[in-house]
Amino acid sequence: MIKNDLLLRALRGEEVERPPVWMMRQAGRYLPEFIELRDKYDFFTRCQTPELAAEITVQPIRRFPLDAAIIFSDILVVPQAMGMDFEMRPGVGPWLENPIRTLQDVENIPVVDVEEELGYVYAAMDLTKKELDNNIPLIGFAGSPWTILCYAVEGQGSKSFDKAKSFCFKNPIAAHMLLEKITQTTIDYLLKKVEHGANVIQIFDSWGGMLSPADYDEFSWKYIERIVNEVSKVVPVTVFAKGCWFALEKMADSNASGLGVDWTITPELARQFTGNKKTLQGNFDPARLLSPPEKIQELVVDMIDRFGTQKYIANLGHGILPNVPVENAQAFIEAVVNYKKK
Ligand code: CP3
């Protein structure tokens, strides 16, 4: 039993005293204690060393009254397990020397045993669960198949992911085979995360908004839905699809418990698209954490007033930025924790 189960209750649509709060990328570069470890160990060493990953996961929990922890890792550990040798290059970000560009490349991707390849993630989760001592839930996550395809084909980040899109449009058979392989691996990976203590699973579809609504259905949502259908049998699932307001109506009819929204949609429209069917999560503009703490407090109260206190999880509309002062992140969290209905 989790002592503070606000997040789980909000996801089940049960009554809560106030909305739960956590921040996407809460274990990150705005924390001095994170930077200390970042300067000593490279990114994937931090991910692959269970003691480091567990330590980084609990760093924000020691500082702030957060209602959930999210395991420190990356969405790219899944394609790495499938044989794609992603690196994190300073100043560049994710980098794959030999991107996936042909049907042959896709056919060469092996079926892997996630337990064997990603045992370090599970070991990090076991350590984290001990540290959390059932005080708050632990969130596990994975990238959506489409978002993973974006990096696998493009080989790096991009403003438009045009190489990934042209691969899908010119070579749909290879694209669907790749999406299929990622989907299967992701389902195995996430079900094992639940065995290792994940209380909630979040799917990050960071680049879903690059696709038109019709292409979104074909290349992204279809695969996310399969993951959601399997994983939601064991824990609540949240889907955060950045830029995908157009898909909210369809998502509201899925087995997801929570839907993440970014800051480009109003709470009213997000509610209108999803009815009262789902718990919504979001959607504070991460750059608004650069406002003075008093302004942050005011904006958070307005956000909760508009989403409502029920079926709602306060969060940012995307990951926290590295240049956010710690006091401002604290002001955001405390504004939710101290929220009083007018
Ligand atoms: O939320 C959390 O605190 C958990 C940790 C987490 C990380 N990455 C750690 C991380 C999560 C949930 C992710 C997911 C992730 N990774 C996504 C989806 C969410 C999103 O932001 O859209 C994506 C697209 C990635 C791929 C990735 N990893 C990118 C684009 C980058 C940034 C590269 C850069 O140049 O900054 C990363 C690196 C990364 N992952 C960092 C962290 C804290 C920062 C780099 C570092 O610490 O060295």
UniProtKB/TrEMBL annotation:
Pfam families attached to this UniProt entry: URO-D
Keywords on record: Cytoplasm, Decarboxylase, Lyase, Porphyrin biosynthesis
Domain Uroporphyrinogen decarboxylase (URO-D) span(s) in chain numbering: 20-29, 139-155
Catalytic reaction annotation: uroporphyrinogen III + 4 H(+) = coproporphyrinogen III + 4 CO2
Compartments in which it is found: Cytoplasm
Binding positions for substrate per the UniProt entry: 25-29, 44, 74, 151, 206, 318
Site (Transition state stabilizer): 74
Pathway note: Porphyrin-containing compound metabolism; protoporphyrin-IX biosynthesis; coproporphyrinogen-III from 5-aminolevulinate: step 4/4
Domain of life of the source: Bacteria
EC top class, as a word: lyase
Entry EC no(s): 4.1.1.37
Claim: Lyase is one of the keywords in the record: yes
GO molecular function term, any single one: uroporphyrinogen decarboxylase activity
Keyword Lyase attributed: yes
Physiological role: Catalyzes the decarboxylation of four acetate groups of uroporphyrinogen-III to yield coproporphyrinogen-III.
PANTHER family tied to this protein: METHYLTETRAHYDROFOLATE:HOMOCYSTEINE METHYLTRANSFERASE RELATED, UROPORPHYRINOGEN DECARBOXYLASE
Subunit relationships: Homodimer.
Family: Belongs to the uroporphyrinogen decarboxylase family.
Protein name per Swiss-Prot or TrEMBL: Uroporphyrinogen decarboxylase
Annotated organism of origin: Faecalibacter bovis
